[in-house]
Specification:
Layout: E1 3-7, H1 17-27, E2 31-34, H2 41-54, E3 61-65, H3 68-74, E4 78-82, H4 83-98, E5 121-126, H5 129-142, E6 147-151, H6 167-178, E7 182-185, H7 193-198, E8 203-206, H8 208-212, H9 215-227
Length: about 230
């Protein structure tokens, strides 16, 4: 089934942020990417702990964004890094990989290594076919079995109002070339959800919409996804 991903921006949230996180998970979203890049490392880690606690009753995946050290300390299995940060942090990721933990399922870890961090997946952000090739090269160097990308921005969006949208043809090209899960990002809402799925995207990322949507609106998005046939 196609995935629904909520990307956070607490400044857009009109309700209590943690309550909105719970609404998103309760509606049936598959993943929440905690993208709060303006915070200090300590503040981000504290917020991540709160979000992870809020998501404990749900099956929603919590992916941390940009703050690799916080992900290590909290033993989060999923990390998302923008492309420049991927290059910067490649050495650190390689260090963990060389210890034998990156890309392995938890059940494969030795019993005496349960306390060590295990990234089950690494995500990256791309905005062109050229950037996609760079990420694919990184995947090969790291031997990461589970890697995904967000491709943006597909539709016009208020957070990038001065940049033209790349459109569905861009998304179709990325999906054909990727050889890894592609999550469409940028200006996605209920009315254009099926367009990104039919373009080949494995998932759809919603930020502004999910931060402001009511419980009913969030469930409508999930219902629309569930009704689509691919």
């Amino acid at each position: 089934m196609k995935e629904l991903i909520a990307i956070t921006n607490r400044k857009l949230c009109e309700n209590d942020f943690l309550d909105q996180i719970k609404r998103i998970a309760d509606a049936g979203f598959d993943r929440i990417i905690l993208r709060e890049k303006d915070l200090t490392p300590d503040a981000y880690q504290a917020l991540a702990e709160q979000v992870m606690r809020a998501l404990e009753p749900y099956e929603t995946i919590c992916t941390l964004h940009s703050f690799l050290e916080a992900a290590v300390k909290l033993q989060v299995k999923s990390i998302h890094l923008p492309l420049p940060l991927l290059w910067e942090k490649e050495g650190a990721i390689l260090a963990w990989m060389q210890q034998g933990y990156l890309g392995k399922k938890e059940s494969q870890l030795p019993e005496d290594c349960e306390e060590l961090h295990n990234f089950y997946e690494v995500g990256g952000s791309i905005h062109s076919a050229e950037e996609l090739q760079k990420v694919k090269g990184l995947q090969e160097r790291l031997h990461v079995n589970h890697m995904y990308i967000t491709a943006s921005h597909v539709f016009p969006t208020e957070c990038k109002k001065n940049l033209p949208a790349r459109g569905i043809p861009f998304l179709e090209t990325i999906c054909k070339q990727a050889a890894m899960p592609v999550y469409a990002l940028g200006g996605i809402a209920l009315e254009n959800l099926e367009r990104v799925f039919f373009a080949g995207a494995d998932g759809a990322c919603l930020m502004s919409y999910t931060m402001r949507a009511s419980e009913k609106e969030l469930k409508e998005v999930v219902k629309r996804r569930n009704c689509l046939q691919f």
